[in-house]
Specification:
The protein has helices spanning about 15-25, 30-35, 80-85, 130-140, 155-160, 195-205, 265-285, 305-320, 330-340, 340-345, 360-370, 375-385, 390-410, 440-450, 485-500; strands at about 50, 90-95, 145-150, 165, 185-190, 250-255, 290-295, 420, 455-465, 475-480. The protein is of the alpha/beta class. Helix 7 links the parallel strand 6 (about 250-255) and strand 7. One of its GO terms (molecular function) is catalytic activity.
Length: about 500
Amino acid sequence: MLSSIPDEAIEGPSDWKKLVSKTLKSTKWSRFFNTLFHSNSPSINYLTYSLKNSIYIKDSQCTGSSSALVNPDHYPPKSSTIHDLLSKTKAIHLITSSLDEFGMGAAGVFGHKGRITQPLSPKRVIGGSSSGSAYLLSKKLIDFSIVTDTGGSARVPASYNSLYGFKPSFGLVSREGILPLCTLLDTPSIMAHSVETIAKVLSVISVPDPADLTTIKTVRKSYYPLNIKNPLEALEKLPKNHKNIKKITFVAIKEASEAGNRPFNKREKKIRKEFQRLLGRLRFAPNTTVSVATIDWPPIYLTELIYKIVAFSELVTHYLSLSGIVNPWIRGDYYEDNISKKKKQEEDSRLKLLKVSTYYSYDSEKIRAKMGSEVKRRHLLGFFFLYGDNRVNIYQKARKIISLYKKRLSELLSRGEIIISPTTEDIAPLSKTYSPIYFKDSFQSLVLLANFCGLPAISIPWLHYKSKLDSSKVFMGLHLISNYREDKYLLSVVSFLEKSGII
């Protein structure tokens, strides 16, 4: 198995295959007996996992899949909260997985090691930015992976590879010790082979963290077992007259079924037809019903533009640390090699070395030169969105539009409703023709809305086809969104749908 996994999917030492093989052999029987006798246990003991290489592990290189952080080496002085929580269990951390550089990408093509394609359909992109995690899960090397989701980074690759990708409510899981991309949208997330595994992992990592004030209202609780027989019992925020709610209501967004003036291709038409059939089954099932709603204003076709304005603007401020003015976590030997003895004598503390100087200007140029083209493009656009009056006229107006989206979705989901849609309009694009240039995807607009509103959302396996191009398997996921902090309810609904045979 290890021989078939490319180095592009891994961020780790050159002998990672040897290290992983040794770990798997030493834990072979523990994992076997755990699978045999404890598969229904709420514990995650002896489950194997990876961490996206934007999540810090003390004294372990964190590159964010960027050449800018490879040389000089960057080693975090402390581990992330998530890593510390998982380390207290007997779960087995096998490896760190690669990503699009700094999480800036949606296809797995922008990592510093090169492109990653799907294991089952090598001519197609795997999805990103959590591309390495999707690959390792697809090869069944790991049981789950901790990733981040800023605009679908867990759910889109899950959809393309027939996996489960879950983004919890904003503030449920601590972001302390994770390379930031966009403070407003970044959410630690979970990818796995089953919704049950996600519930078990969420029970471990969802705790209040004094180092991350967004988690101040988080209460530690168990998300497993799920409420399969009656998911409505898992609702945290009971609406008025909740006793009158007898069925789970699935909401289809009218605008998401429209594509403006763009014609659908044959496969897109087939996906929409399958979605309508699913809605029909939900409408006539004894415990579920369906309603159709509109978002109206702001229109959902603005979501991609709003995402770029907000995310690109915020990443500029986060990555000022690589401008050369502040350069964290550089090893001491780098200073030894690059700073003369005379200069060290003149400076009585290392903090004073953080002054703007010729040395730092030179270092800044070297670091920026190592960044990939997509990172540079996003930085330039981010600077533009914040330049002069643009901050008020573009960035702040985008934030106001997000507030309007939040208000509308809060209304739609106030009585335990679930927004349902395909995760994307089509299967994964071909690698050689993939372009990051904006294209209209009304279903993926709903993926972005979950980030804008901080709502729990999940992509689950749904459709599969055989590609006419090379007879390979291709996949399409189903996307579901619930109200804020109704994470267990959402996971319970997914399990209910699967156990009842509706999907």
